[in-house]
Write a structure and sequence with these properties.
By secondary structure, the protein is an alpha/beta fold. It has 2 domains: 161 residues, NAD(P)-binding Rossmann-like Domain (Rossmann fold, 3-Layer(aba) Sandwich); 119 residues, N-(1-d-carboxylethyl)-l-norvaline Dehydrogenase, domain 2. The chain contains 14 helices and 9 strands. A 6-stranded parallel sheet has the order 3-2-1-4-5-6, sandwiched between helices. A 3-stranded mixed sheet has the order 7-8-9.
Length: 294
């Protein structure tokens, strides 16, 4: 931390806004960029620092530039081109991408960075908005170990765990595994909760009992109650989960990995989207089961 004083954060969404806030609270000089400038101005009024008009300007004085946007195309739009992060990055700086994107994009950005003597790491996160706000994210990183050691103390201000998973792209591949596991767990939880309802059981009582045994999961602890109340206007959106599963399924095909359950749950999420639930939390899978009876 003592060697790095100036950082930039590009993308102040539900994740980036609090993550950048933790950096400011840690005493770092933070420059921010957001596509909607009013969001950046709001962040500055709350945390200090400087808001700029382009990603390039954000990177110009930063030792480490963090990005957290939506998808591969969004990353390219802020990272490349005349006004992109790499255009403004100084030699020896590090670009860290927290976006959940493809491993192919990570390799593409690494190559761009090498051409301008800028290091790159892919670093997708897990933990959701609550994890970002509470500084309890899990960060899966891909890149060189010496670069990881350089940025890890900074990332730790908003992470409960950060781990180097391998070379560039390995962080994104690990996040794919994470999302596949979540999708399967949520489908199982949805079916179990639905069965409890059909049997006339008290769902809260059921969860209270089974959560003390082998069925326990983060999803059960944090989503079962809201699933029972049919509350889904929060959390990680179905639209984003489908984006992540698409990346995972494409990668599985390239590596000849069989993922029939992930492919099936992806189609179940498509049904939720067709119901108008694209912005609902991913635990809304249960609504697909309920709608059959309505």
């Amino acid at each position: 931390m003592s060697e790095i004083k100036n950082v930039a954060f590009v993308g102040l969404g539900v994740m980036g806004y609090p993550m950048a806030g933790h950096l400011a609270k840690a005493g770092l000089n933070v420059t921010v960029y957001n596509r909607t400038s009013s969001k950046a101005e709001s962040w500055v009024s709350e945390h200090g620092g400087v808001a700029v008009e382009t990603p390039k300007q954000a990177a110009e004085s930063a030792d480490v530039i963090f990005m957290c946007v939506g998808n591969d195309d969004d990353v390219r739009s802020v990272a490349t081109g005349a006004d992109g992060v790499f255009s403004g990055s100084q030699e020896g700086s590090v670009v860290v991408d927290h976006t959940t994107a493809s491993a192919e994009l990570a390799l593409e950005l690494e190559a761009i960075g090498k051409n301008c003597n800028v290091d790159f790491m892919d670093a997708p996160v897990s933990g959701g908005q609550a994890g970002a706000e509470n500084g309890q994210l899990t960060v899966m990183m891909g890149g060189e170990r010496n670069i990881f050691q350089k940025v890890e103390p900074i990332i730790d201000v908003y992470a409960k765990m950060s781990k180097l998973m391998g070379g560039v792209g390995a962080g994104q591949q690990t996040k794919m595994v994470n999302q596949v596991c979540i999708a399967g767990i949520l489908q199982g939880l949805s079916e179990g909760m639905h069965l409890a309802e059909k049997c006339g059981l008290d769902s809260d009582d059921v969860v209270d009992v089974i959560s003390k045994g082998a069925a326990q999961s983060w999803q059960m602890d944090n989503r079962a109650a809201t699933m029972g109340k049919r509350e889904f206007e929060f959390g990680f959106a179905v639209n984003w989960m489908r984006k992540d599963l698409d990346i995972a399924l494409n990668t599985a095909r390239k590596h000849d990995a069989r993922m029939p359950l992930a492919a099936l749950v992806d189609q179940f999420y498509a049904d939720v989207q067709a119901m108008g639930g694209g912005r609902w939390d991913t635990s809304s899978l249960i609504e697909r089961l309920r709608r059959v009876d309505e």
